[in-house]
Amino acid sequence: MSDTWTQIGNLARRSIVRTLRQPAYVIPPLIFPTLLVTVNAAGLRPSTLLHGFPTHSFLAFAIAVPFIQGALFSTMNAGTDLARDIQTGFLNRLALTPMRGSALLVGHMAGVMVLGLIQSIFYLCFALAVGVRFSAGVGGAFVILALASLIAASFGMLGAFLALRTGSGEAIQATFPFLFVFLFISSMNTPRNLIAVHWFKIAATINPVSYLIEGVRSLIITGWDGQALALAFAVALAIGSISVVLSTWALGQRMART
Amino acid sequence: MTSDGFRSYRSVVLGVAWRTVHNALTTPNLVIPTLAFPFFFFLAFAGGLSQLSHLPGFHFPEGYTSFQFVFVMLQSAAFGGVFTGFGIARDFEYGFARRLMLAAPHRSALVVGYAVAAVIRWLVVAVLLTVAGFAVGMGVGGGGVELIGLYGLALIVNSAALLWSAGIAMRFRTIQAGPAMQMPVFLALFFAPVYVPLSLLSGWIHAVARGNPVTYFLEAGRSFVSGEAAYAGVAFGAAFALVAFFGLWALRGLHKAEAAGG
Predict the structure, then answer these.
(1) Closest-CA residue in chain A for B182?
(2) Distance CA A204, CA A188 (A)
(3) Which of A87-91, A208-212, B12-16 comes out lowest in average pLDDT?
(4) ipTM of the predicted structure?
(5) What confidence score (pLDDT) does residue B139 get?
(6) Considering A98, A194, A202, B96, which has the largest number of Cβ atoms within 10 A of its Cβ?
(7) Any chain A CB within 8 A of the CB of B137?
(8) Distances (CA, A) of A35 to A72, A82, A189, B183, B251
(9) Number of other residues whose CB lies within 10 A of the CB of residue B147
(10) Do the beta carbons of residue B233 and residue B226 sit within 8 Å?
(11) What is each CA distance from B115 to A118, B52, B65, B83, B236, in whole angstroms?
């Protein structure tokens, strides 16, 4: 067991250092979501005049989105890193060692989780700087950090699965538009009860990303909403669990030991 | 230019355009984002934000789908130019542009070739987007003739965005300059009345939007769709001015690339 922890520690250190050394991994997930939310909040401010809109500040309503958008970047980062390990033969060399598959997957997630936490702290600070106040208070801010880190890890594991299946960094990059569909066809810009187009309302309702956004959002504009939080954590755990199972299976296929 | 010179110029333009279009439409990693992004924006904005048409002061009789169609059409035109700029940067990074420059008697033909490719690439998206718009019930006012004005405006915007991106690509000569091409275009598009008319914006975004030429492209485009052309002179004037300015910017970029040896 201690061997496994040593393996996880070594791979986690490598993953963290490798992630934080690449400005292209660190800077865009910080800048792009905050820029997008600023521009969208300015343009969509009149939405708050709609009857039934839950807050008078569109920025407070929309600030949940960067947390989820940042997690989407985790998918790309985790996937691209692992795909590079496959393309450069690093994974094949690891396959010659007694390393456990679980150590590879857990260790590989360390960089994504650390970056996810940095992103979440940055978004929280940004929110406070632009005048957003958290209805759930300081405790709510810590729950947002926990939920955002869980979401980043879940999406990161999904990226790992894609990398293990495709073995190509280019293919991972090409999935980016498809991940964005989940963000756009959700309740990111309008509460679900105010969506008028029927098909869009159905799509947003069956889209798990809606529940992740609404979980984070509830702590900012509502306070402690047990149902929204339970749904958000359940969806994040479900995505993470399914991704772990799929990644473990894909890793077994990829690392054919002799 | 002699007739031989013209034929040679045309040959370079067509060669560069054909190669660029062929790459853009046959490489999945290039064709998917080009086609997918405008559709995602169209579906997300027209579907998810349609309640905004019920705001007091929002008057657009053709409906919110038509209102957003104009933005997505202009956005696809601008990003069609930017994505082609990525290809120029890649050609320089991998040394292909150096060989092109050795082979072309008039090097400005390379820029014109890329611009033609950007237009063809955008036309494919425009046709598909228009079909999708009508399929989801987009309304068009007047006789529909004014729609030609929208496509004409979008075509000029496409060329302006290509020339901007080409200037960046030929100065930096690496695909790492992609964000420098993309981000200003993205900001210019979103610092305009994207979701609601200009009159409903307030605060700093209203002030910024008033000075942003994209605002007048959108206002004119939306007036073409509603069949009551307005702001057309301002919009076309601003669009041609951008093409002229970024044309000079691209040619100076070409000279810098020549001086650097490609």
Answers:
(1) A32
(2) 9
(3) A87-91
(4) 0.71
(5) 86
(6) A194
(7) no
(8) 16, 28, 15, 10, 31
(9) 18
(10) no
(11) 42, 37, 30, 11, 18
